Every structure is written in C-alpha cells, then in structure tokens.
Amino acid sequence: MGKIIVIANQKGGVGKTTTAINLSASLALAERDILVVDIDPQGNLTSGLGIQRDRLTKSLYDVFFGNATINDVITQTLLPHLYIVPSSIDLVEVEISLVNKSGREEILKNALLPIKDRFRYIFIDCPPSLGLLTLNAMTSADSILIPVQCEYYSLEGLGLLSDTIRRVRGAFNPNLDIEGVLLTMFDSRNTLSRQVYDNVKRYFNEKVYKTIIGRNVTLAEAPSHGKPAIVYDIRSKGAQNYLALAKEILNEGSTG
Amino acid sequence: MGKIIVIANQKGGVGKTTTAINLSASLALAERDILVVDIDPQGNLTSGLGIQRDRLTKSLYDVFFGNATINDVITQTLLPHLYIVPSSIDLVEVEISLVNKSGREEILKNALLPIKDRFRYIFIDCPPSLGLLTLNAMTSADSILIPVQCEYYSLEGLGLLSDTIRRVRGAFNPNLDIEGVLLTMFDSRNTLSRQVYDNVKRYFNEKVYKTIIGRNVTLAEAPSHGKPAIVYDIRSKGAQNYLALAKEILNEGSTG
Ligand SMILES: Nc1ncnc2c1ncn2[C@@H]1O[C@H](COP(=O)(O)OP(=O)(O)OP(=O)(O)O)[C@@H](O)[C@H]1O
Ligand SMILES: Nc1ncnc2c1ncn2[C@@H]1O[C@H](COP(=O)(O)OP(=O)(O)OP(=O)(O)O)[C@@H](O)[C@H]1O
Ligand SMILES: [Mg+2]
Ligand SMILES: [Mg+2]
Q: How confident is the model at residue B24 (pLDDT cuts 50, 70, 90)?
C-alpha cells in the first residue's frame, strides 16, 4: 500500500528538504498518514520540523547499525498524520564503516519493509551527493521525485542524476521509476527560470509537474521556527504552491 | 608566497562555486596569478569557466591516483592570469578507493607543494560534504573562506563546520586559519537576510567581510555562458560585488 518516494538531486540547495517538509505536511493536512525519513547527516529536515536533535536518544543511525528497529525511532511531529525518522550527524559513519559490508545498499530497504503499509507515502530526504546514503534511499524506493532549481548548474546536473538512476535500476532496483520532476525557486522576473523550465520540459516531458514552486521567502523563514510553511503561514504563496503539488500528486495517484 | 585558500561549507548551494569563480576572476583582472582547483566531482567550477570536461584528457583525478603531476593538468582559462586544475566525475573514486590509504588526507597538499609559489592565491572549490575530498582541501590550505547564504539552514550548518575546522586543526593542519566569512545571496527586501547577517556577525565578528554579495541574477546566468560575471557583464551588481571583495582581500593582504 505505502509508496516510498526518494527526494534526490546531487546538486546542493535545490529544494530537496523544503520539498520533503512541505509536500509531506500538505499530504498530512489532507489526512494521509505520511512518514518522512531524514537520511542527510546534516538533519535539515529534522530541525525544519522542530525536532531537537540533541534530545533524541535514537535516530536513523541506530537503524543502520542494528541498535534499533525503525519502529523504535519513528517520531510524531507537530502535525497529527506526519511522522519522522530523524537524522543524526553520526550517519556520516555509514559512508565510512559500511563501505565494504555486503548488502550495504539494501539496509534501508530491509528496515522499511515491516512498516511500509502503515503509511500512504514515505518520503526520503537525501544529502547532496550520490554516496552510500543516497544509494540506500534509491534502492529502497518505488520512485524518485527530482527537485530542479531554475538555474544553470541544477540543469547541468540532471545528466549525472539520470545516469545514476539508470545504474541503480541496473544493479539494485529494477523498479525505480521517476515519480516526477519539480521546478523550484522559479523567479518569474528573470528569463533564466524560463529557459531552465523549457530545457527540463524537453528532457523530462510529461514527468514535469504542472505545479511550479515559485521563490517565496516564507519557505526560507519557516524552518527557523521549526514548522512547515503551511503551519507557519498557510496563506503564503509557498504554502499554497506545495498544497497544489500535494493535490496534483493525490489526483495522479487515483487516476495514474 | 602563494596562499592556499579552501572555499568550503557542507551546506549545498550557498555560493561556494560562484565565489570561487568570481573572486578568482576579479583577482586575475587585478593581474595577480591565480589558480583555482576544482575538487568537486560535479565540476561546476570547471564548466562555469568554459572548460569542456569531455575534451580533457587529464584532471585532478589523475593527480590523486598518481597518473599525473599537478603541472600536467594546470590549464589556462579565458582570462590571462587565471588557471584551473579541472575536475572530473571520476573524483568520486577518491572517497571510495582511497578511504583506507595511509596519508589519504595529504595527497592534495603534497601535490600542490611544488607549484605553490607560482601563484599569488590558490583557491580550492569543495563539494557540499565533509568527506575525504574536502578533508584533502582543508589539510592543504593556509586558510578557509566560508560562504554563508543568508538563510536559516546555512546558519544552522555553521556549528558543524566550526567543529570540522577544529578537528582538522587538531589532526592534520594546525595552521588552518579562517580567512573570512562571506555573506552571499543577501536580499535586502526581506528581514531573514538581516537576521542571518546579525547572527553570523555575532558568531564570527571581524572575520565577516565588509563586502556582502547581494542576490543578482547575472551571477546565476554567467555560468551558462562558461564565463565569470566580470567577463559576461562587468557592470552587473554581482560582478561589482566580487570586484569589491577582491579589493578588500588585496588590502587585507597588504596591511593584515
Ligand atoms: N521556493 C523557495 N523560495 C525561497 N527559498 C527557498 C525555496 N525553496 C527552498 N528555499 C531555501 O533555499 C535554501 C535551499 O533549500 P533546501 O535546503 O531545501 O535545498 P536542499 O536541496 O535540501 O539543500 P541540500 O543540498 O543542502 O540538502 C534553503 O535555505 C531553503 O529555505
Ligand atoms: N549572489 C547570487 N545571486 C544569484 N544567484 C546566485 C548567487 N550566488 C550563487 N547563485 C546561484 O545559486 C546557485 C548555487 O550557487 P553555487 O552553485 O555557487 O553554490 P555551491 O555552494 O557551490 O553549491 P554546491 O553545494 O552544490 O557546490 C547557482 O545556481 C548559482 O548560479
Ligand atoms: Mg537538504
Ligand atoms: Mg559548488
């Protein structure tokens, strides 16, 4: 029942975490049970949802190293239907200590199996790299949602990301689909946004969401209050954009 | 004579590459011999300076794996005094294959020693991570220049970055200074920029450059033409900001 969607892009700062927070919150507001998994040692998703990392006794790190099951670490957030598996900086150990372990790409996949059907969607927020943590996320997922910032370097990185998806399909996860491509930080006042949009549309076609996330300062302010934008200021353009994206995804889910 | 400055911040998309390109270009325009080293496998610095990566026969990868000296890979750019050691996607191998090699953090440092005095400044552009590539850069450097985007997550990441600098000083490079902290993508229309500025100033004090880089679309457009902003449009605010930063650094160099 549950669909696992990895949110990935090796380019930094393209809106992975902002999408993970606000899309999941919007779906939770629509009363779907949602789990977000923070697989980035930097833990922006965890703090953006108001979880105090130094108060956590266990995190995703403990699941990777066999000290805990995923059930032990699932945590309620401030929103009724939204749950989180929090990150910890110790996750960097995964890319160092587990690099030679057999089955190292499937640890997260196996950990999520027992709880997959408790949620409508499980989103995994990745770090800006294509290392073992992101590989675990991509190996466990049904599909990948790709945020693309409307600027040149983000566009340039899509070739590498596509190669990686192909490689993961070939080696670890033949069923990995592209869920959709989300244009982020669109700035209607400059032509660069438009050019990147046209390029992405040509490359990914019907996979590009109709909803475009515009640049809106509320989305950048909300994490400093440990809240999603829809809790911090639901009337902001940023909150409204992500609510529209959630609607688009729910409609796709029922027809597509 | 040559000063090695690493440009690092594990948060993605804070302006590391944009700073590496435009600061080095501004100093080259002031007729200083400058070398930029692209240690990010994604190679944004390399493409932002118009270097076609698929035409390269050798890159920094070959220096790490002993197939080439740094002299073999230093490449002229479109600006007379600006040189580059280009990146290649194969650099990801460093974090996989060299993870157990003794002296693995000092490979870049040893490679740069023979050429250090040919340049006034050597800038190293890092990926958004604190792995072996960034460790090599920090171990080889005299100082670190930290770009900080004027938004919450970038501020949140400074604690971790400071811990890493302390750790590198303790284990690999006791002389690693903080060259300066550069506020980037400052948006005068929103208070968040101001709040981040105040916080950073409180934390880093006189290390914060007087020059602030404002948000300016020219800086985002220039890389799509393979040029620094000062070549693409020297009258743009973005180009002018980085020229002012270069001036501030040159003055510090002569008095500080
Ligand atoms: N639509 C938007 N409008 C304005 N600011 C935004 C928007 N989306 C994201 N931001 C801000 O831009 C910065 C980068 O976004 P975010 O951290 O979500 O990207 P990321 O891809 O997760 O970064 P990383 O690669 O470091 O994990 C953050 O400060 C965030 O608050
Ligand atoms: N002052 C600015 N005004 C407008 N856009 C900017 C500015 N500085 C950088 N950018 C754009 O913001 C994006 C992120 O900048 P950049 O790639 O330099 O950051 P980075 O820290 O090197 O990212 P990464 O962590 O992925 O290496 C790029 O698309 C860049 O062109
Ligand atoms: Mg993130
Ligand atoms: Mg960069």
A: very high
